[in-house]
Automatic annotation (TrEMBL):
<feature type="binding site">
    <location>
        <position position="187"/>
    </location>
    <ligand>
        <name>[4Fe-4S] cluster</name>
    </ligand>
</feature>
<dbReference type="InterPro" id="IPR000445">
    <property type="entry name" value="HhH_motif"/>
</dbReference>
<keyword id="KW-0411">Iron-sulfur</keyword>
<keyword id="KW-0004">4Fe-4S</keyword>
<dbReference type="GO" id="GO:0004519">
    <property type="term" value="F:endonuclease activity"/>
</dbReference>
<dbReference type="Pfam" id="PF00633">
    <property type="entry name" value="HHH"/>
</dbReference>
<dbReference type="InterPro" id="IPR023170">
    <property type="entry name" value="HhH_base_excis_C"/>
</dbReference>
<dbReference type="InterPro" id="IPR011257">
    <property type="entry name" value="DNA_glycosylase"/>
</dbReference>
<dbReference type="Pfam" id="PF00730">
    <property type="entry name" value="HhH-GPD"/>
</dbReference>
<keyword id="KW-0479">Metal-binding</keyword>
<protein>
    <recommendedName>
        <fullName>Endonuclease III</fullName>
        <ecNumber>4.2.99.18</ecNumber>
    </recommendedName>
</protein>
<keyword id="KW-0238">DNA-binding</keyword>
<keyword id="KW-0408">Iron</keyword>
<keyword id="KW-0326">Glycosidase</keyword>
<comment type="function">
    <text>DNA repair enzyme that has both DNA N-glycosylase activity and AP-lyase activity. The DNA N-glycosylase activity releases various damaged pyrimidines from DNA by cleaving the N-glycosidic bond, leaving an AP (apurinic/apyrimidinic) site. The AP-lyase activity cleaves the phosphodiester bond 3' to the AP site by a beta-elimination, leaving a 3'-terminal unsaturated sugar and a product with a terminal 5'-phosphate.</text>
</comment>
<keyword id="KW-0227">DNA damage</keyword>
<comment type="similarity">
    <text>Belongs to the Nth/MutY family.</text>
</comment>
Length: 214
């Protein structure tokens, strides 16, 4: 994707969805952290079903600790890797209570020190909760960035760094939401829906498959 295509690419996505949101359901920064931690190798829909029950019973780190490992495990057993995630959740809550006064820290370093929280999870929390212009590269963003030529890279970190370099500042806070949603609903893995893609004219891959603009 040429540099001069990036502005209209994002302007088009922004016009279609001016205030993009994560599809995970939460009512606090703590609930967001939990939801993102649970979302690895799981769908947002599946996570939302499980967290609805869990958050009703344990909306704070201390309340979740009080529930105990067995009940947390049972609450999220419909999610992939639920046993490991339950242990990470309990350990994360213990650290939040003991080291951060029950609050979710605002620094990347402190977030990544939490069990089960990697760079992508930290990026989501920093972006969604604290409005930082981070790029949480999941499978959808990795695919869209490479397929369109926006930010080609062989690893999620390479794609993230390229996005930080190429996405115009005014679009930076919302960019990862637009790219995730675009990948989830339009630029899909098995069959990208180029014929209904609003940004196909700036996409490196679509250029050869779409009819010429009249």
């Amino acid at each position: 994707m040429h540099d001069d295509a990036i502005e209209p690419f994002f302007a088009t996505l922004a016009a279609a969805n001016p205030s993009p949101q994560t599809e995970l359901e939460f009512t606090s920064v703590f609930e967001l952290l939990c939801a993102v931690l649970l979302s690895a190798q799981a769908t947002d829909v599946g996570v939302n079903k499980a967290t609805k029950r869990l958050f009703a019973r344990a909306p704070t780190p201390q309340r979740l600790l009080d529930l105990g490992l067995d009940q947390v495990t049972e609450s999220i057993r419909t999610i992939g890797l639920f046993r490991t995630k339950a242990k990470n959740l309990i350990q994360t809550c213990r650290i939040l209570v003991e080291q951060h006064g029950g609050e979710v820290p605002r620094s990347r370093e402190a977030l990544e020190a939490l069990p089960g929280v990697g760079r992508k999870t930290a990026n989501v929390v920093l972006n969604v909760a604290f409005g930082e212009p981070t790029m949480a590269v999941d499978t959808h963003i990795f695919r869209v960035a490479n397929r369109t030529g926006l930010a080609p890279g062989k690893t999620p970190l390479a794609v993230e760094l390229k996005l930080l370099e190429r996405v115009p500042p005014k679009y930076a806070v919302d960019a990862h939401h637009w790219l995730i949603l675009h990948g989830r609903y339009v630029c899909q893995a098995r069959r990208p829906q180029c014929e209904r893609c609003a940004v196909h004219r700036w996409c490196d891959s679509a250029a050869s498959t779409m009819p010429a603009e009249g």
